[in-house]
Every structure is written in C-alpha cells, then in structure tokens.
Amino acid sequence: MRRLALRIVCPALVLAWNGAWVAAGPTPAPTPGGVTVRFELNDAQVKDQVLPGVQVRIAAVAGGAEVAVGVTGADGRFSAVVPPGTYRISYALPGYVPYSSGATEIRDDGQLVTVSLSRLLEATGKAAQQVRVILNWGSRKDQVKDADSHLACVCQDADGHVYYRHKVHEGAGHRVELDVDDIDWGGPETVTLTDPPPGAYLYWVQDYSGPPAVLGSADVVVRVVIGDQEAGEFRIFKGVTQRAWRPFRAIEIAADGRATVARFTDDEIAEGADLVLPAALYTPETTQSGPSDAGSGSSWTGLWAFAFPLGILVLLWILSRLVRYRR
User: Fold this and answer.
1) Domains of the chain, start order
2) What predicted TM-score, i.e. pTM, was given to this entire model?
3) Is the model's pLDDT at 293 over the cut of 60?
4) What pLDDT was estimated at residue 316?
5) What are the contacts of 263-269 at 24+ separation with CB within 8 A?
6) How many other CB atoms sit within 10 Å of the CB of residue 196?
7) CB within 8 A of 133, min separation 6: which ones?
8) Is the distance from CB of 302 to CB of 24 less than 8 angstroms?
C-alpha cells in the first residue's frame, strides 16, 4: 500500500513542480532582428468598437527615418517587427482626430499597444465645445488590470465627481460623462466635458485593481483632446507606486470658453504634487491596499506555483499516515 501511494503521489509531485516552473518560467525569445509589436486601435467613445483602416507609421524619435508603416485590419490590429527602442508613432483615420505619440517604448516581443482615437466633432454631429480626456494603459497580465478615470467638475455639485460609480453629471448648461469604462487592461477610459463652465477641472487616474501591479509599471498614457486638436500627452513615471496619479494640474476653462491644459512644473513633480489629491476627492479605493489578485494574472501564477505543490506534499503526508494506521 505504501509503495502504491508513493507511485501515485511522487510523479504527481514532480509534475506539479514542473508545471509551476513552466507557469513562472521565462518569456519566449524575441524575434531575430527585432521584436514583434502589436497595435490595437479602438474608438475612444464607443466601448469595444475596433477601428479598421487606421494608418500606423513608426519612426525613430527626433525626426528619425520610418521603420514600419501599415494599416489595421478588420480586427483593428496591425503588427510590425522593429528593434527594441523608443519610437514616434502616428495614427490617422478619416473622421478621427489624428494622433502622434512622441515617445512609445517598445521593449518586449509580442507587446500590445492599445490606442483609442477620438472622433472629429463634425463626425459626431455636435457643435458644442468639448474637451475629452482619454486614458490607455498596458495589456500584459502582470500590469494593472483596471485603471479608472476620475474628474471633478468645478460646479461643486454633490454629483460632480464623475467616475465608474457615477458616470454622468449634468449641471446648468454643461455635462460631464464617462463615455467608456474599461475594466480589463488597455483601455480606453474616456471622460468628455461638454460646454464646461469656467474654472479648473481636476482629473486623475486611479489604480482600482491594487497590488502587486502598480501604475508606474503599467505604461499609463493620458491624452487631452480639445475640440478637434490633441492638446497634450502625459506618460506616467516608472517609479510611481501610489494608487492615484494626476497627469496634469488641471484643465482650465477661461471666461470666454477657451480650454487649456495646466501642467505641473518640474519642481512640483519633484515634490510629489502629481500624487496628491484634495482630501474631499479621495475614494476608498485610493487608499486601500486592494485585493492582491484583482488585476494581475501573475498573482494567480504565483498561487499555482506554490500552493499546488504544497497541496501535493500535504496529500503525501496524509497518505503516509493512513498507511501506518492500517498497519
């Protein structure tokens, strides 16, 4: 009986450890001569609407030569093989605001870059003044799964804080809406201000999923579109571990309705001003540690790698005790 138990359990234990090693093992080797980067283009205002026909142009930064050009297919995707590095990538599609990314870092084979394009106002049929804030982030399973957009309206109404729990705010002659709320990597999370009254609008990104993934390693990119013009692109710093991040100081609306983006100075960023919210705007998710497995597939990999082999050891111990008891 003891030999039979050992024959059953020991191979299972070896298989468990081998499976754990495979689950936590190294990533595949990059393509010779470069890495494969995948692009997924979608609509910033319509959830899950992919964009075929987007022209994607990849060039070295600082006016360097183009290394790849292509068009997204019916699935909204385009792939290219390029050397690892930092690139200027432009995206163009009729009916949408063209976008040029100043510094996209491509480093991993199979890396997925999700980009959300904003429709031109004439394409939406709206003549109102609009400001749109678009959030995208990384798609790797070890990155933040759910990043949230938050915006506080200047009118200070009780429902003026727009985010996933309160997606629409309508005040006197103006509207703030969370058009898209994405909960599983990549984005977009899009907030649109329509005919906003004068004042300073605070916007921030919040890591809903929580650790072990952090915003600073999630390739977070925030863009501001004013009317039909890209007004700013903001990328998070790699070292950010806080749950909330402000990419800019505020969106400011002047008395004549003109919108501008007020940026943090280098000194303010050095002092951590971009990581601080007014006390009244904190939500429970901003300060809590969060569920460790809420947004990262890597946490499940860790559980598989250690808990399953441990369970096999426990089973082996129980069987050995049963053999002794029968004897």
Assistant:
1) 35-117 (2.60.40.1120), 128-290 (2.60.60.30)
2) 0.73
3) no
4) 75
5) 263/232, 269/237
6) 25
7) 149, 151, 190, 191, 192, 203, 222, 223, 224, 225, 251
8) yes
Neighbour-count burial of 241, counting CB atoms closer than 10 A to its CB (0-12 exposed, 13-18 middle, 19+ buried): exposed
Structure-derived torsion over alpha carbons of residues 69, 70, 76, 80, reported in degrees to the nearest 10: -70
Q: What is the pLDDT of residues 16-29, one digit of tens each?
A: 434 433 333 343 44
In this structure, which amino acid lies at residue 2?
R
Rounded CA-CA distance 287/31 in Å is 41
* Token pair belonging to 194: 């329509």
Quote the radius of gyration of the chain (alpha carbons, Å).
24
Which phi and psi angles does 9 have, rounded to 5°? -80, -40
* pLDDT (tens digit per residue) in 111-131: 999 999 999 987 555 556 899
- pLDDT surpasses 60 at 175: yes
Higher-pLDDT residue of 51 and 155 is 51
d(CA 301, CA 303): 5
For residue 180, which amino acid is it? V
Element of type H or E holding 188: none
Residue 19 pLDDT: 40
Distance CA 234, CA 221 (A): 6
Q: 189: burial class by Cβ within 10 Å (0-12, 13-18, 19+)?
A: buried
Confidence of residue 253 (pLDDT cuts 50, 70, 90): very high
